[in-house]
Amino acid sequence: MAATALEIEQNPKFKELVATRKKLGWTLSLVMLAIYFGFILLVAFNKAFLGTPISPNGVTTIGIPIGLGVIVSAFVLTGFYVVRANARYDELNRQIVEESK
Amino acid sequence: MSRFKSLISAAALAAFSSSAYADAIAGKVEKQATNWTAIAMFAIFVMFTLGITYWAAKRTKSAAQFYTAGGGITGFQNGLAIAGDYMSAASFLGISGLVYLNGYDGLIYSVGWLVGWPIVTFLIAEPLRNLGKFTFADVASFRFSQTPIRILAACGTLVTVAFYLIAQMVGAGALIQLLFGLPYMYAVIGVGALMIVYVTFGGMVATTWVQIIKACLLLAGASFMAFMVLSAYGFSPAALFAKAVEVHPKHLAIMEPGTLISDPISAISLGLALMFGTAGLPHILMRFFTVADAKAARKSVFYATGFIGYFYILTFIIGFGAIVMVSTNPMFLSDAAKGLAGIRGGSNMAAIHLADAVGGDVFLGFISAVAFATILAVVSGLTLAGASAISHDLYATVVKGGKANEQDEIRVSKIATIVLGVIAVILGIVFEKQNVAFMVGLAFSIAASCNFPVLLMSMMWRGMTTRGAVIGGFLGLISALVGVIFSPAVWEATLGYPKGSAMFQISNPALFSMAIAFAGIWLFSKLDTSARGAEDRAGFDAQYVRSQTGIGAAGASAH
């Protein structure tokens, strides 16, 4: 006899899965929002900072690594989530599915 | 309102609204000499993709095959297909052109198009895959009264698809003149006919493969260009930047933010539209149903984020490459006296001329063909999403009450595809002389203000009811539409009313229209004391367990 939704919700493993995944997902979302809107606000309010040259005799500004860093951060954060999910949540999920049969 | 106006200087606003929607080929284009190499290469692409469509057609018998390729796409393949769906010709040519003209501003702009993807991974992809079958309305209507939510979702889908399609069709018409030297009409009719063939015969299988092939070609071509540019400077970006600063008329100013963002409210609003619009685009959401399970859905966004991020880094290098190799070569300038700004065919051609500079005629033909092929992949995905909303959400669920015969449903979606294709061609012709640059921004605003709030709240919030979702969703849709129509880009630049007469002096309404949608959903759900509302809330537990664990989720590969 398959478990009902309410029974599954009482499963401690389900509670753990949902609580940890929700926390990770929202934390990473807020980090991404903070990085992106932080960048936009920097562009809006402190252009001069982004225009600071990295080395005194070069033209590359600090804005270049920061801008590319936002792009890379999107990839790294997504990768971090996927690695965590593969390592932890899939196994937990499999156990919940097994116990609910 | 006066506060807004004082915030924004007229000059900054003009700069923002003209470049804010670089993801559409805008402005006048001049027809170029007929480019037979490019046409031949494009013909090869078309023959190859038609071959795939023929192969796919034999495998597309069931509704699951038609809508979602039977769930048989792997995470990696889907990641490529998502990237192929998302990297439009306009973002390739438009962003590299923006970098060519303004340098750093192009980077700021491209970042906005990427940052929505992590949010999709963290909050949407897995529950979406666990709950849905063919369209995002399956998810949004999961525990609600079917008819009203399906109608809302179909409206959100069709409006988004329509505006996105018009921008693509007009872009195709502009591109064919620039790239192939052929008339506007050839492009609009050719694109319409090909997309009808791909979608009606090959369904999602053919659409997916067209997108995968296009993504590979575009990434390979752009990588080659960036490689050639960097190799000319000993693989030292610093040397490339130094040369660019020397030859660019704005000199050091190209290494720092310029006029793109001067008004923080417009910037944040556009950022929200790009970020959450990505998470509400129906043709993108549909792609998550083509993989086997939540794990593959999650992986596919990871790959897509990587490909798209890599692509934007390439466009940045390509833009700088064009500054040093295109603007300094009189061969690519129609008006050498104007220097960099006198580029032949306008700034959208920066990447195309660079292809000529680094790879000669054959590579120029290749990049031109790829740029045009990208439009086909994007419009096919859009049309399939629109047709699915008509056949699966409106016909099968609303008209037939969920009891439609599967073959009838497929037939309706094929008819819908043809109708949408014909409408797209007609609109493409009607809008030929119009500036449609705002339409992509509008599509994103509506996706962020209607589709996304309803989808997110339906999955996350127990308290949402049918009434709250429908009222909130339509409020979001209408406020996004009104906000765009009365924005400077449409009211002043497109409709020609005097400068400063637009009711909302902000280039993108998402900040407000999203807030209205969420507040509307919350308020009208809270006020809802109907029996239906109680039923909606009671359905949350079953939906929640399935969204989190996938228990009970139909394997899309069934059937």
State the CATH topology of chain B: Sodium/glucose cotransporter
Count of spatially separate domains of chain B? 1
Helix percent band of chain A: over 70%
- Proportion of beta-strand residues of chain A: under 5%
Terminal CA distance of chain A: 7 Å
- Number of contiguous helices of chain B: 23
Inertia-based shape of chain A: elongated
Oligomeric state of this protein:
heterodimer
**What structural class do the secondary elements of chain B suggest?**
mainly alpha
> Which structural class is indicated by helix and strand composition of chain A?
mainly alpha
How many domains of chain A? The number is: 1
CATH class of chain B: Mainly Alpha
SSE ordering of chain A: HHHH
Compute the CA-based radius of gyration of chain A. Answer: 21 Å
The DSSP helix count of chain A reads 4
Helicity level of chain B: over 70%
Mean pLDDT of chain A, nearest integer?
A: 90
- Per CATH, the architecture of chain B is Up-down Bundle
Strand content of chain B: under 5%
Query: What is the first-to-last residue Cα distance of chain B?
Result: 56 Å
Give a structural overview.
The complex is a heterodimer of chains A (101) and B (559). Chain A has 101 residues and is mainly alpha-helical. Chain A has one domain (5-99). Chain A is built from 4 helices and no strands. Chain B has 559 residues and is an all-alpha fold. In chain B, 73% of the residues lie in helices and 0% in strands. Chain B has helices at residues 2-7, 10-19, 36-59, 63-68, 75-86, 89-102, 104-114, 116-131, 136-140, 146-180, 184-232, 237-247, 264-278, 282-286, 294-325, 350-399, 406-430, 438-460, 466-485, 488-492, 510-526, 531-538, 540-549. Classes of the chains: A mainly alpha (101), B mainly alpha (559).
